[in-house]
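Deliverable D4.2, example record:
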Amino acid sequence: MKKIIFAAAALLMHGAVSARVLDRIVATVNGKAIFYSEFNERLKPFREQLKQNGESADMEKLERRMKKEILDAMIEEKVLLNKAEQDKIQVTESEVDQGMAEIRARFKTEQEYSDEIKKQGLTVSKMRENIKNQLVTIKLINKEVRANVPEPSEKEMKKFYDDNEDKMIVGEQVRVRQIFFEFEPGVAKKDLMAKAKQALAEAKKKPESFSQLAEKYSSVPENAGDTGYFGRGEKIPEFEKPCFALNVGEISDVFETPLGYHIAKCVGRNAPEKKTFEEAKDYIKNYLYSADMEERYTTWVRGLRDQAAIKILDNKLLE
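Output generated by the structure prediction step:
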C-alpha cells in the first residue's frame, strides 16, 4: 500500500515538475507573463509545415527566424492589450458570439469545426478569449490610429499616378477555380494524392461540374475555390506557373505546392492593359491610405513598446 502511495506521489510530483517546465515564463511585458506552452502552441503549425517541406540546410535558420517573429508578435499583442486595458476598451459577449459564428461558417460541418479547433490546440473557451483579444485590439487600433488617418486628396492621388504612370500597366491576369487538398499532420501524402486523383477523374469526366466538385472535395470550399483574377508574382510560384499555363476552360493535372495538392481550372484571362487615372483611382486611394495607416501604426506601436517594460527571460529559446 505504501509503495502505491509513494508511486502515486512520485507521479504527481513528476507531473507538477513537467507542468512547471512546460509553462516556464519566456518573457514578460509590464509584468504579464508569456509562457512557453503558449509560445510552443503558436510554433507548432510552422514546425509541421517545415517538416512537410522536407529536410533542408536552411531548416534550423528558418525555425530560429520563425521563433523570433512569433515571440515578437506575442510581445506586441501583450503591449496592445495592456494599452487597451488602460484605455478601458470593451468588447461585448454578443460581439464575441458574432466572431465565433463567422469562424464556424467557414466549415461545412460541426465535426470539421471541432477538428480544426483541436488541431490548433484550442478549446472553445480559449478560442473565445482569443477572439475577444483580437476584437479589443482592433477597436484600440481604430481609435488610436485609423481614426487619425485622412483620406488621400485628389491632388495626392493624381501626383501618385503621374509619378508612377509606368506602373499603371496591369499585366496579364488569370482567374481559376481550384480543388485544394491541404497537407495535414497525420494524413499520408499518398492518401491525399489518391483523393486528388479521384477528384481529377471526376472533373475531367464532367468539366461543367468543377464548382460542385470544389465544394465537395476542397479543404477551402468557399466560393467554389474561385481565386479571382491575379497577376504574375501575386501567388507562390508553384501555384502560379501551372495556372498561367492553362487556356480558358482547361483543367490542370494534380500539382503540388508547399501547402498541399491542387487541381485548377482556368475560367478567365485578361490581356495586359494600362489603367487610366479614373480606373486606377480606387486602387491609388486604398494604396495611399494603407501606406499612411501602416506608417502611423508602426510609429505608434513602437512608442508603446518603448514605454513598456519588456524582459526576455529565456534567450536560449531563440537559439
